[in-house]
Amino acid sequence: xxxxxxxxxxxxxxxxHLVYAxxxxxxxxxxxxxxxxxxxxxxxxxxxxxxxxxxAIVIFTPHWQTYIGTHFLGLPEFKSKSVDxxxxxxxxxxxxxxxxxxxxxxxxxxTAKAGIITKMMRNPDFxxxxxxxxxxxxxNPSWDKPIVTISSNRNSHYYSNEVMIExxxxxxxACMKAIEKSGKKVVLVSSHxxxxxxxxTEAPLPEDMSREHIYNHSQYxxxxxxxxxxxxxxxxxxxxxxxxxxxxxxxxxxxxxLIWMMAAMGVPSxxxxxxxxxxxxxxxxxxxxxxxxxxxxxxxx
Length: 301
Ligand SMILES: [Fe+2]
Fold this sequence. Notes:
Elements: E1 5-11, H1 16-22, H2 36-50, E2 56-66, E3 70-73, E4 77-83, E5 92-98, H3 101-113, E6 118-121, H4 130-139, E7 147-153, H5 155-158, H6 161-182, E8 185-190, H7 217-231, H8 235-249, H9 257-264, E9 273-280, E10 283-290
Parallel strand pairs: 1-8, 2-7, 2-8, 3-6
Antiparallel strand pairs: 1-10, 4-5, 9-10
Helix pairs in contact: 3-6, 6-9, 7-8
């Protein structure tokens, strides 16, 4: 069996507004559109994914929060309705997804070996979080690949952003070992926004784009700084400033997803592909990917 590998790493924000704006048949709510910069960026990245040979999507989500250890989805199928607790008016999505249990178990095993508390989720009634569903739907609307979801252990709440980073690095390295041993080709997804201060009231029509803008200028400047570093392949520096960035912008990076993905990918020093940046209820959202293949890596935006 040849060595497994990570064929792409995607930063994939998950505001439920983006699924709402797409009006897929799985979602009950109806919209008149909105947030096209992000949706068109996602569509372009989804087209790239269709050209890549891979076996599974492994996604790290901030909205499956676990307070004792890191958990992995551990049954072959999960089917239910996912309702966003904050935006039930926008997101009531009927999902039916397949899990690569073999890969999840392999990552669970390597994670335990690295000394991290970890558990498989075997409850058939477990409701999959909207972060997983939104990012996976937008990256692969046909849902024709199995997924593995990894929970976010809230070390930043118990300890600090620094401890979260150390744990997320160890988790990423463990997942990489499991992927290599599996012989599979895997797409990693880090599901989150960048800056995350947001408005606390909603426009009467949520997709009214005349009401959408970044929450404040400082957030915008920080996001542009980080995206510039993505473009320049400065991921080591991004990891170094992550505690400060997360604190200053209340960024959703606090869940550990980006660090997990960068550690698994050996902290890339090549440029990221940028697919778009736009605000959703004032938060900063960037779609980006890290393509380890020199031949297919492009300058997108
Ligand atoms: Fe979120």
